[in-house]
Structures are given as C-alpha cells and as structure tokens.
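Follow-up to my post from last week.
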Amino acid sequence: MMTSRIIGTGSFVPTKTVSNFDLSELVDTNNDWIVERTGIVNRRIAQTDSTVSLAVKAALAAIENASIKPDEIDLIIVATFTPDNAMPNTACEVQKAIGAYHAFCFDLNAACSGFIYALQTAHVYLKSGMSQTALVIGAETISRIIDWKDRSTCILFGDGAGAVIVKQDSHGIIDILSGSDGSKGEFLTQPYAHLTTPFSNSDSSSILPYLKMDGQEIFKFAVRKVPETILTLTTRANITPTQIQHYLLHQANKRIIHAVAKRLQVKEECFSMNLEKYGNTSAASIPILLDELNRMGKLKEKEYLIFSGFGGGLTWGTILLQW
Ligand code: UT7
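User reply:
Got it. Predicted complex:
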C-alpha cells in the first residue's frame, strides 16, 4: 500500500547563542534552576534572521539532502505561530526564495504541535495523489513574542527551523493520531496586538502581545497525552513501545521526556534530545532534532520512529513511521 516517506531533512538555527548565565543578567534566575527544571543550557536567538529566512535555509538544506530540484515541489506547508507577516504567508515567501514555482503554499498554526499537523496534512495530500512532492517546514522566531522580563517563560524558548521533503513511497508513515482541546486554550496564549478602530467599544490597549503559559498545567497535559497517543498507535500497529528505535518528542523539557519514557517503560536513551542546545523551538523542535539524527547517520532504513508534539490550543499529535 502506498504511503508517504521523508526522503530528506534540513535545519537551520541562528548563530547567536544565549546561555543561562546570560539570562541571569536579565531576570532573577540562575543556571542551576534552569538546568534542573528544564535541561536547557543554551538557546539560539535571531539577530538578523526572520522566520522566513530561517525557513528558507532549512528548506534549502532539506532539498539538497533529498537530491531534488525546487521546481519538483508542488506543496509547501510552513508550521509556525510566529510568522513575520500575516500576508504574504511564510510558505509563499519560501516558495519565492527557493524558486518552487509549481508549489501551492500555506501556513498552519498548531503551536508546538505544528510540525506534526503539517506533516499529517502533507501526508493526506500525497496519499490522495493531489501532491507528489511536499516540503514541510517548522520555523519560529519566538524571541520576538517573549516578555524578556518574565523569568517563567523567557528561559524556555529559542529560534530555529527544520524542514523535510516528503514523497509517496511503499513504506514510511504508518499511522497518525492528532487531537485538540480548545476548552483548555487559556493555559498557553499569545494575543495579537490589536489596532483600535473608530468603531470599537472595547479597549484592547492593555493587552500585551506576549506568550503566557501555565507551565504546570502544560506539563501535566503533556505527560498524560503523549504516552496515551503513543500507546494507541503502537497497539494499532501491533508492536510494543520497546520496538521503537527513536522517539522524537517536542523538545520542551527533559523532565517531560523522562516522564514519558518511564510511563512507556522504554529506556531514556531511545528518546533523542537536543533541548540543552536550543531550548524549546516550538514547531521547529522535532524537524531540527530529526535532521541532526539523520545527518549523524543514526537512522537506519525501516527502523520505527515516533514523533510526538504537544502545546498551545491545546493541541497534540503523534506519528508512527518507518524510516
Ligand atoms: O512548548 C509548549 C509546551 N510547553 C511546555 O511543555 C512547558 C511545560 N512546563 C514546564 O516545562 C515547567 O512547568 C516549567 C519549566 C515551565 C516550570 O517548572 P516547574 O517545576 O513547573 O516550576 P514552577 O512554575 O512550579 O515554579 C517553581 C518555582 C516558583 O517559585 P515559588 O513559587 O516556589 O517560590 C517560581 O517562581 O520556581 C520559580 N521560578 C523560577 N526560579 C528561577 C519560575 N521560573 C524561574 C526561573 N528561575 N526562571
């Protein structure tokens, strides 16, 4: 049976490294607290890069890795909650920059689950035959919507982009389980800065466009939802969690990843991590991690992989695939 398969990966992070020690000069925090509670040591912060420029660099790396030409791409999806502009969308900007003239292009926002939702969407287009070659990108410049005076959030996030090329193949994505719970949206928010109009009766001038999070609620949600979706997918595929060679979870917190490993009774070594270097890069975290593993030669054909994302919305999504 035909499915879709990742045939190339790429990623790009800004060059500027900001350490925990750097942040302790901005807010009342310290390296020990951040490392112990999150596992994060450094993060990359955009100085001249934008969400588009990060996405373009990741895309070009993925195109090269897949040995395809940009004009073969007929679908570009960018997952981001930090686009540079509302219009044109990020995916159209990427199309222009890389010369993917035959693609149709849109952005998708599912916060930290964005890459999973985007890959799922591309998979459906490829399976239906409406697309032949998809470019799926997760790209964020979260540093621009952070309140750099809020120690509970500013230590967590980083900027970056990861990309994959996906094509029809006889093996690849096996199963997907995504979901949303809008009733718990208030746990992770970032409002737009609204312009006032001459006709508006409400005063939105006090609404600040910063990311706000109830960390403990998101933590509990992740530790419950991620194992639940993984177990559903492995059961449906008639395999056990120990048969998965590589777990690539959204890189939010090492304690979440360790708690998931424990619940699944799988060795922590099977859970790849790079959050110590980049922090939480939202929709970019899974494709950046995937690209690092791919380029290190750690992924062997036909091995089982799990991708799992969770975040604002609330949203979640897990993909079981064979490399
Ligand atoms: O990508 C979207 C998904 N996001 C996530 O998955 C995030 C999930 N949540 C988390 O990772 C964790 O909840 C955090 C890392 C955000 C926070 O860790 P926590 O263990 O839940 O800490 P807490 O919020 O309960 O705070 C504990 C204490 C508080 O002090 P008191 O009230 O006990 O005196 C905080 O004020 O730590 C304090 N605190 C800090 N101290 C030093 C909060 N932030 C900091 C900080 N440095 N940066």
